[in-house]
Structure formats: C-alpha cells, structure tokens
Amino acid sequence: MTALTDLTIAEARAGLAAGDFTATELTEAHLAAMEARAGLNAYITPTAERALAMAKTSDARIHAGQAGTMEGIPIAMKDLFCTNGVRTTAGSTILGTFVPPYESTVSAKLWDAGAVLLGKANQDEFAMGSSNETSAFGNAVNPWTRAGDPDTTLVPGGSSGGSAAAVAGRIAMAATGTDTGGSIRQPASFCGIVGLKPTYGRCSRWGIVAFASSLDQAGPMARTVTDTAIMMGAMAGHDPQDSTSAPVAVPDFAAAVEQGVKGLKVGIPKEYRPEQGLSPEIDAIWAQGMAMLRDAGAETVDISLPHTKYALPTYYIIAPAEASSNLARYDGVRYGLRVLEEGDSLNDMYCKTRAAGFGAEVKRRILIGTYALSAGYYDAYYLKAQKVRTLIAQDFKAAFDGGVDVILTPTTPSAAFPIGAEIDDPVTMYLNDVFTVPTSLAGLPGLSVPVALTSEGLPQGLQLIGRPFDEETVLRAGRALEKAAGFTAKPRLLEG
Ligand code: GLN
C-alpha cells in the first residue's frame, strides 16, 4: 500500500470515506514524518496537539456522514495567515511572539471544509524574497538536490518556500501560499509541485499579513492539479470583510480539471524568449509543453505581450511602495516587538523597534517604497509605474480578446539554486520572478505545473495564465500538461 504521506488529497478522501484509515492515522503519519524531516525547516511553528484534536473532529464528522471537501486532510498554513491562538510571525522578528486573536477568512474556510492544521509554514520575511532565505527563522530547505550532488543544499524558492518544501517533502498533503509577484508559482516550480495563484479578488485577503495589497493573493499548493483544484474550491469566495474580494460565484474547479484541451488556443508570448535570460534547456522544456498541449488537441499560436520587459521594474516600484505603507503599522505600539529603553522618546522607540524587528530585505523595500512615494518622486516613479501596469494588463487583454484561451510560459528562468548563491545580489534574486510578475500586475490567474527534470535532475515548471476568474481553463490545461508529462519523480531525500 502507498504510504499515507504519499497519498494525494483525492486518494486520501477516498480512503477516509472507505474506512481504510482514519483522519487521526493520517495526521499521525504526517506528524511523524515532520519529526523525521525537521531538517527541512519547513515549519516555523508545528501544531501537533491542535492537529490531533482537529483530526479527531474530522473522524467524528466522517463517521456522521458530514465530511467537508477537505475533511481530515493535513495541511501546512503559510505563516502569513493569521490563525486564532496560534503564533503568526510572517517570518519576521517583529511578529516573533504575535498570537492573533482572530482567524483569516481563507484559513477559516479551510477549517470549515475539514482541513487539519499541521503547523505554520516557513516563508521569506513579510513574503519578500524568492529563496526563503530572508526568514528570521532560518531558511527552509528544498528536499530536492542535484543529481550526484547530495551535499549542496538548495533553496526551496520563495516566498512560500516552507509550504513548497513541506508538500514536496511529504510532510504536508497540501499547503496554502500567497503570491504577490510569484511566491506560489516559483517555489512550486523549484520543488516539483503544483501551485495556483488565483485571480486577484478570488480569495479574501482578510487576516493575511499585508505585503502589497493590490497584488497579494492566497492560493493552494499541492502535488497534483486535481488536489490543487479541490483545495482552491475550499479557499475561494466573496468576503464582505475584504472590499477587494470579488462577488463572483465559486465554480466547481475539481469538475473542470478533466475537461481536456481540445480546441483551446494556447498563446506563446515571444517576449518570454532568451533576451530575458532563458537557458536553452528551459526553452526546450517550454517547447515540450507546447507539443504536449498540441498532442492533447489544443492549438498553439504566437502572441506578443510587448510591455513584458517593464514588468519587473514596475513591480519593484509598486510592491515596495505599498509595503512601505502597510508596514508602517509595526511601530512597537500595537503589534509584536517593542524596544523601549529608559528615557527613550516615542521616536526612539519607533526607530529601535523597527531597526531590531525588520531584516535587511524588508528595510530595503521600505526605503525604496518611501522614496518612490515621496513628494518629489511620486510622479516620476509611482505614477509612471501605475501607468505601465495598465499597459501590461492591456497586453494580456488584447491577447485574450484576440481569441487566446490560455497562455503558456516557463514559470522560472532557472531551476533551484544553492543556498547563499543569490542572497547578496538583490537584482539577480528579483529576476527569479521575471515570468511570474506580469501576471500579478495584471491580476490574472497563473498555475505552475511540474513538467520535466533539468539536466541537473531538478524539477522545472511551466506556467499557464488565464483570463480573469477563469481558473477553470487554467486547471484544465494544467491537467493536460500533467497527464502528458507524467512527472512522477520524487525528491532524492525520499528515495530508498
Ligand atoms: N519574490 C518576489 C518579491 O520578493 C515576490 C514575492 C511574493 O510573491 N510574495 O517581492
């Protein structure tokens, strides 16, 4: 029999319903694996006791015929989601002891659907980063290593790096992530799992620690497209508490998955080619993806998204600008850390608290954002960036208006890299998101699906981008890729 920690959500649901095992057994198996693989540092705060209590409730609900869509499924929750009574750090020292008295809408929906909380997943500080190395709690580790090089530890990607490492390392059946510029899709690609950034507004942001409010979006990370669709259904929906959450119906994502891609038009944007630094190897994997979709009955068409090259610089004005405003609330008065010494003025307290509480990357973003929003530079940087953002969104709209149903690109310009390799070079680190950021600026859904192993033996994902609120087509196309790719490789850590 497949180990309990190797099951997909769909398989686990069937096994639970058939009485092959209990939710408690499923949770216990994951808790044991979490201990065995604690070296992945995927969790900032494991919640074993709560997990067992939740599993017990799930067993009772299953017994009573009241199982929800995620009943008894053990998951990791990115530490950006506020969880009532469970420490929520956002990967930062400044929130290192913060225990929220409320629950985020998305996590509350998952508990209502029956999911079990294994723990709070590691992440880059305030979701700023692409390697999980900016976490104040040490970096999470990618369970994958290069073929023949088991000693070089690789990053899991970021910012949802703990979530991705946990799902790939079989110490969570699925996980939540958040994606502002790529933080679900890039770590999914680096760890060989599936990750979906939904349309902006599809999931409530209420109770999620804010990074850049016009970009942040919660989404599921799992090992199959079907599992991703199942979890998406439990997370999505309008929330009156978030004025940017969209009052649109939640479709049956899981039902859409098997509809195939016959007759779909798949756009291939020419701007995602080598001048962006794409290696010939990843270009070849992209071409394989195109062929897989064609073989499944889709048509590929060349398209142009002419403003793509401005996306990264635009993002690095808008996201830090919003972050500098959002992070002003960490002032030592209301949340978390306070550094106050005898004789200090209020201003001294602000400065000392923020100096001690924030890491280097967060400080860099606050400085850039404050600069871009300052009176003398607002028009030159922030306003200009907003205009370019509109042009980027119009590029996508023109492609979809032109008849394209979905767009296929690589998720990342490279596979996972060694810990320490990029952390001292912010611009190189920022380039990780060159293919994911345009989608975020346009607010569109983006899915990363693992398609192949590189010559180094590392997973590489391809990204599918859809129309606003058309996650269904994205998931359908993702399932077609998944079927054709037959990506069954497991991290070497789990071999033998
Ligand atoms: N890596 C990007 C950044 O550092 C995106 C992060 C995210 O999506 N949260 O801003």
From TrEMBL:
Residues 25-475 form the Amidase domain. SUPFAM superfamilies: Amidase signature (AS) enzymes. InterPro entries: Amidase, Amidase_CS, Amidase_dom, AS_sf, GatA. Keywords: ATP-binding, Ligase, Nucleotide-binding, Protein biosynthesis, Transferase. One of its GO terms (biological process) is translation. GO terms for cellular component: glutamyl-tRNA(Gln) amidotransferase complex. It catalyses: L-glutamyl-tRNA(Gln) + L-glutamine + ATP + H2O = L-glutaminyl-tRNA(Gln) + L-glutamate + ADP + phosphate + H(+). It holds the Pfam family Amidase. It is an enzyme of class 6 (ligase). Heterotrimer of A, B and C subunits. HAMAP family: GatA. NCBIfam families: gatA. This is Glutamyl-tRNA(Gln) amidotransferase subunit A.
